[in-house]
Each structure stands twice: as C-alpha cells, then as structure tokens.
Amino acid sequence: MEISGGVPSDGRADLIASLYAQADLVPEPFPQITDASSFHRAVRDFAQAARSRSHSESDGQWLLKIDGLLRTVLQTELRNMAGKSGTNWGADAAELARWHDNRLLFQAVAETAPDKMKHLVLEKRPASREPVRRIAVSSGLLRKGGSQRCASLLMQQFVRQGKKVLLLANEPRNPLDYPCPHEVKRVVLPTEKEARRIQMERTLKEFQADTCLCLDHTSDLMFYDLLTARELGIRTIAMEHSTFPYFLYGGDPEIFFRRNAVYRVCDAVTCLSGMDRQLWSDWDVRACCMPNPPTFDPRSCPLSPLNMKTLILIARLSPNKGIETALEVLGIVQRKHPDTRLVLLGEFVSDSYRDRLDRRIQEAGLESSVLLPGYTNDVSHYLRKSSILLMPSVVEGFPMTLMEAKAHGIPAVCFEMKYLEAARPGMGCVQVGKEDVLGMAQAVSELFDDFSRLKQLGMEAHSSLEAFGAEAVERRWDALFSYLETENDPENLFRTADDPAQQFRNERLAGKEFFFGLDTCLNNRDFIDRQRQHYVKQYLEENPIMLHAFKFKLLIGELFPEDSRRRKFLFPLFRRIGRACAWILRGVRSVYRRFRPWRETKDKEL
Q1: Residue 76: its pLDDT value, please?
Q2: Which of 415, 383, 413 is nearest to 312 (CA)?
Q3: Angle between helix 525-542 and helix 500-522 axes, rounded to 10 deg
C-alpha cells in the first residue's frame, strides 16, 4: 500500500515505532497507518505524549531531543516531496502545517528546501482574545539602533498604561542600553535556535504572556520567536522598521519569502508608510501603518538657531548609510562655502571601516572639517549646533534621526524616498534623486546661500511633528490592541487606500524602489558570492568527475598554500614539465603520422 511521497505505509509504521523506541515510550494502542493523514496524526500524538513527559528544569535536553526527532521526520517528508512542482508541493506542505509545529516545519524547509519557501503556507492557530495586559517584547539588543530605541520607548509607554512587560533579549543589561523601566523583567535567551525555543516557551508560560511583540526585523531569530509564541496561542505582532523592499538593498532577497511565510500567521504587522501597508496587503498580510514613537517632546526641545554652516549625520557608521557619500557632498559644498563642517554622530560598524573612512578624510583634506564624536545618547547637544540633517542613505523606513532633527527645528536633505510619511512636501525635507551627489550638494549650498529659506524649512519641520506626536502614536497602539481583543477596526488601521489615484501612486513608488533595490542587489558582492557558491555546488553535485577534480584542487591548495615557498618553487617547475610533456607528445604524434598518414579527410576530422 502506498501513501503520499511514495513511501510504503509499513515503512512509516516502522518510523513511528522508531520514534517511540528512541523516546522510551509505549503507545497505547499502537497507531494504524493507512494514509498520509493517519501518519501525520500519529507523529502529532507522539509529540504531545513526549512533551507532556517533561516536568523539571533538567528536561531541556529531553525537549531538544524530541524536537530533533520531529525535525528529522519533517525533513524526510520534504525530501520525498522534492520532485513535485510548486503548486503541488505547496498543497503537501499545507497538509504538513496542519498537523505539525509551524516552527519546526519552517526550520525544516529553510534547511532542506529553501528554494520552496515561496510556496510554504503555514497554519494559523487560534489565539487568545483576552485583554492585552501582559506583553512580551523580543528585542535582541537595547542599544545603538533605531528599532532598539523604539523598543525602549514602547516599553515605557506600556508600563505607563499599567501593562506588565517582559523583555526577551540576547544579552544582559549594558551601560549603553536605552532606558528600560525597572518594572520590566529581562530574560536573556540563547541565540541557538533549538535551545532558544525551549527557554522562550518556558518563559512565556511562566509570565503568562497574552501578546508577543517582535522588533528584530533583520534577524532570522525574529521569525522563530514569532512562530514559537504563535504555537502557544499567544497573539503576535511583527514590527517592520524599514520599507518593504529593503531586503534587496541588503543583498538578501531570500529573506523576502521567509518573512512572508511567517507574517501571514501573525495577528498584525506594523509598517511605516501607506505604500508598505498596501504592499503587505497584496501579499495577504494583515498590516497597519504605525509610526515610531518620538524620542523628544518638541515642546521642551530647544530649537537650533540655524545660523551655522554645520551638517549633521546621525547613524550607525557603515557603508550602507552613505557615510562616504556625505564626505563627497561636504567636499563639493566647501568649494562655495569653505567654512562648512560635518558632524558624523554614531558608532563605527568595525575598526576596519573606521580606518577606511579616516583614509578617505585625509585624502580629501577634510581633517579640520569633519567631527567624529562617536556614539552618544545625548544627540540633542549636537543637534542644537547644527543647521541641516544630511541623510545620504538610499533606503530608510521611518528614520528616528529625522524626527529628532524636526524636534529641534532642523530641516533635512536626503535622497528621494517619497514613501516616507515624515518627508512629504511641506514637512521641511528637501529630496534629490537617488545617489545624486551633485544634486544633494547643490541643495545644501542653496540653503546656505539663503538662510531665510533654511529657517522657513526648519519651522515646517518642527510643525510637522504634530501628526507624529506621542499622543497620536499611543492612540494608534490602543486601537491596535483593541483590534487584537475584538477583531473590530473602527480606526481603519488595516484599511488600504480606496482612492485609485493613491493606489497607483503607491504602486509607482514601490516599482521605483524595487527596481533601484534590484540593481543594488545585483551589484552586491556578498549576494554575487553566494550565488556563485550555490551554482558551483549544484554543478559539482551533478558532475562527479568535476567534484573529484575540485577536491583535488582543494588538496593542492592545502599542500601548497598561496604564498608559500614550496608553491613558488614547485608550481613553475610543474608548468615547465607539463609543457615539455606536451612537446614530446606532439613530436611522437608527428613521427607516427609520418609513417601512418591520414587515409581520408573524414578520418582526420574524427
């Protein structure tokens, strides 16, 4: 008798027996395996029986063992499905999701069939509809980043509202952390996926969490955290801190299908613009537009006098933030305004990048014009002495530095990102074409030529904060929690634009971002290297002779390292010997053909 995947039913019965034997359990009665559903039901019953056995602190290893057995079963099933087309594979995967743990299935697909992730549809389990009172916030770090700053502000807001908050972090408390209320309990989770799941489950159950909020949108751990909470019946909210196609700019297009598979089973996904909300809705994701909470109260922030020719850039100092572009802009602006200065406020992503930037500054002769204060929590000190916020990155979501500059009445000059809700016309932001360095430098020079216009833009920037104030953000979070409790949306958080003109505008903006992101991705060195390695691996798997040749090449590389004396001496010798052998073979062939000439042209061609 055959069941799905072409595996005999008795073979699957043996697999079930093996699972119980390895777990030292005895099924009562032994399950009858007649079709695919009965097999998956038997695996699910085994999982429930095995996990119910754990009651003590020392059972972590036991649960890891059970998860390993279940993941092996899923990987076997996925290999049996490997030859199926996308649609049929998706139907079989949906059947697996119906019976199995979503998190284990997601991990098995990521490890066994990553190219099929786009067809994966996970099962959405029922979730609690209790009032939102106990919130678990998953944020790996609590320092040196926009999403981390957002986590800090949201926890403060939730505590003020009387909610119990639990912080799930990857590291213990650090002196550089953003403020965290003392009422918030902090639990450090391991970063190894299997151990993390076990500890997170135990922690969420002890805390009795009813809602889980995850903010690490660039980390795969966020996907596993969301699925772990969702399998426990806890409502989940995923927070996106960049624009929809950001994965292309980072050279990681594979993340697109991974996050879509997970976000479809979340109760809500918060995004940062109307364009993003429409795109998520097109992918059947329940998304709402949620601005980041403000870091400053504009009513208490001192306004910058805007009388100095000082540019400021606040960011993690890394290549993708356009730091070197800012230096180019400064060099061009100084041709007309030689007293212009640039403040680069933030921590370098690495020592090697700092050395690289120092060389660029010295080569351009900008040592006296560039200030590098490093990382600080007191950005207000530097904003009060600046006149223009420079944003030379090509993609942002809802830059909190832009809001901080607005709070001090400072206008911004950035590359074109028309989807940004806080950079619309009349909000004190000048946008130029993508990667248009000359255009950005010209915009800065024109503002320094006309300080009255600079101050007018500063007033626009400050007044535009009314739409993004703390009260407005808090109301939207209250509306989101109300939706999670009742599934009613009176505030229309999840409603996309009804106006066809607005929908067309959003699609046009998305098209521009996708095309520019795709061009960036195809020129990303890491992406190119990953693709090359993938195709080389695939080619070697299909050609055993070439695989052996490749292994021989690796062996030669180990025996004769690149810069070793043996390599420098022996390799030229081997080349000379090879050329000599080739000449000898040609000579032998010539002598042979002198006595045995070609009889026909056809033979010669052969």
Answers
A1: 85
A2: 383
A3: 70
Strand 211-214, strand 388-391: pairing: unpaired
* C-alpha distances out from residue 27 to 65, 99, 305, Å: 18, 18, 77
C-alpha torsion 203→207→211→216, nearest 10: -40
DSSP letter (8 states) at residue 7: E
For the chain, helix, strand, coil in percent to 5 are 55, 10, 35
Structure confidence by residue, pLDDT tens digits, 187-234: 999 999 888 998 999 999 999 999 999 998 888 899 999 999 999 999
Q: What is the pLDDT of residue 235?
A: 95
Residue 125 clears pLDDT 90, i.e. is over it: no
Q: Which helix (H) or strand (E) holds 314?
A: strand 310-314
* Element containing residue 375 per DSSP (H, E): none
Find the mean pLDDT for residues 103-107: 91
DSSP letter, residue 598: -
List 344's β-bridge partners, or say none: 313
Task: Look at strands 211-214 and 134-138 and give their pairing.
Answer: parallel
Fill in the amino acid letter for 354.
Answer: R
pTM of this structure: 0.82
Q: How far, CA to CA in Å, does 539 sit from each of 81, 159, 545? A: 22, 56, 11
Kindly report, as residue ranges, where domains of CATH 3.40.50.2000 are found in the chain: 124-294+469-522, 310-468
Is the preceding omega at residue 29 within 30 degrees of 0, hence cis? yes
**Phi and psi of 206, rounded to 5°?**
-65, -40
- The tokens 């248009």 sit on which residue? 436
Alpha-carbon span 156 to 473, nearest angstrom: 13
Write the Ramachandran bin of 24: left for phi over 0, alpha for psi from -120 to 50, otherwise beta. left
For the cut 80, the answer to whether the pLDDT of residue 587 exceeds it is yes
Average pLDDT over residues 572-585: 85
SS3 220: helix
How do residues 494-545 score in pLDDT, each as one tens digit?
A: 887 777 888 888 888 888 888 888 888 888 888 788 777 777 777 667 677 7
Place of tokens 């530095």: 401
Backbone conformation region of residue 428, classed left if phi is above 0, alpha if psi is from -120 to 50, else beta? left
Cβ pair 101, 40 in contact under 8 A: no
Residue 314: beta bridge partners?
345
CATH of domain 124-294+469-522: 3.40.50.2000
Residue 361 CB-half CA count within 13 A: 19
Please, what sign has the CA dihedral across residues 242, 290, 463, 298?
negative
Cα angle: 146, vertex 148, 153; to 5 degrees: 95
Has residue 434 got a pLDDT over 50?
A: yes
SS3 185: strand
Letter for the amino acid at 37?
A: S
Contacts of 545 (CB under 8 A, 6+ apart): none
Confidence of residue 413 (pLDDT cuts 50, 70, 90): very high
Q: Which of 378, 153, 426, 411 is nearest to 303 (CA)?
A: 411
Candidates 278, 153, 173, 258; CA nearest to 213 is: 153
Containing 387, the helix (H) or strand (E) segment is: none
433 phi, psi to nearest 5 deg: -60, 155
How confident is the prediction for the chain on average, in pLDDT? 86
Give the architecture-level CATH label for domain 310-468.
Answer: 3-Layer(aba) Sandwich (3.40)
